Amino acid sequence: MRALTRPAPASPLARAAPLALAGVAGAAAYAALRRRGGSSTSAEPNRHTRLAQLNGTPARRYYTGHNLKRAVAIEDLRAMAHERLPRFALEYLEGGAEDEASLMRERRAFAEWRFTPKTLVDVSHRSLATTILGKPAAMPLIVAPTGLNGVFRNHADIDLARGAAASGVPFVQSTMSNETMEDVGEVPGLRHWWQLYVFGGDEVWQELVARADRAGCEALVLTTNTQIFGNREWERRNEATPSLLTISSVLDAACRPGWLARTLATQGMPVFKNVIDFVPKDQRGFFASAMWIRDHQPTSMSWDIVGKIRQRWTKPFLLKGLLNLDDVRRAVDAGVDGVVLGSHGGRQLDWTVSALDLVGEARKIVGDRIALHLTGGVRRGTDLLKALALGADAVMAGRAPLYGVAAAGAAGVGRALEILKSEAINAMGLLGAASLAELGPQFMMRLPESFVDS
Questions:
Q1: Residue 220 maps to which CATH number?
Q2: Could you tell me the residue range of the domain that residue 149 belongs to?
Q3: Beta-carbon-side half-sphere exposure of residue 198 (alpha carbons within 13 Å)
Q4: 445: DSSP letter
Q5: How far apart are CA 116 and CA 113, in angstroms?
Q6: pLDDT in tens, 358-373
Q7: What residues have CB less than 8 Å from 349, skipping those under 6 apart?
Q8: Measured between alpha carbons, how far is 328 from 317 in angstroms, rounded to an integer?
């Protein structure tokens, strides 16, 4: 049943006060720990910048300031995000499940594929313009659904939508976002998609689907691989209990007054505004509501739900989180309009293949009957081109825009998308492809694993 009332929330400043006081008391003692853990980019497997250095010279570091024009790559925006966010928020943003093998695989898969460029080709009129689900897009990229973005910045979901709209690409809003779908739908020029988690009784998803339709969402994306929550150990190591951060995590957050000002001081703890009324009144705190929703995702969910949603939703309908070719075949038979291959950012089952590993075979299965998208590990314009050349119609990017929103709000999202577009358009020219239609496996060669790091 949908609850009609809720307790009056404490003021944002009251909610932020414990962190602020903790910061005053503990900042001096804790300052030496703020950078514990080393470089934010030390685990990136696809960068080889040390090759150009001798004994650490010339010294190199990513940009962490405030001038977005000086962010020349997604890694700069990532470094800016690491400079601004507390440790618990960074773990939520960056981490994966268990040994993080699925997370690593997303990136390593791109490293295994190398280009075989053609020369003496007229590439003076290159373009990334395309159509996504039959409507124009500035490039074959979609901003992926991500939840709990209010922990990075107040109104981060609206910032993501604004950045996507300004860049001419769709934005998929998560069920676990912190802004209402109606408010996000007010962003001018936005191609607004809705991502659906199934939890609770049928009346929950039915109402969310109906609301998404009324809000003008043009597509529905059902996530299929999260009915059991992934074992995200590094997130849990920042928690004293499932509903309480460790003292060191609290002190680390309190040492970042800029983050406090952009988040808790203006909004208090984030709220899952689209679903909070389905949560019992005594479970509506930040951590408690997240745990309640997690615990009420049905492990019995089957292909039957796809048919039920298809009957109610007449607009484009996609399934997200597929990593098995039999599921791709079944999705085509189920009458959906597209599939999104992916491992949920490496945050669910560990030791899976990556979306890029399957995209070529998946293309053979779907042909031109439905859209084929992939998500996971896109950090470069060249990653976008590799995915397209191997068979994808478009990619979804999640962490790259989030680095931007954490760094500088909507402008940071726009900068992230601008970087990816600029890199891709330049790489097309160097590859010898004047249009997206010319991309294909003839430009690609897969290296044996022993050569990936060379």
A1: 3.20.20.70
A2: 101-231+269-451
A3: 24
A4: E
A5: 10
A6: 999 999 999 999 999 9
A7: 97, 102, 225, 230, 343
A8: 14
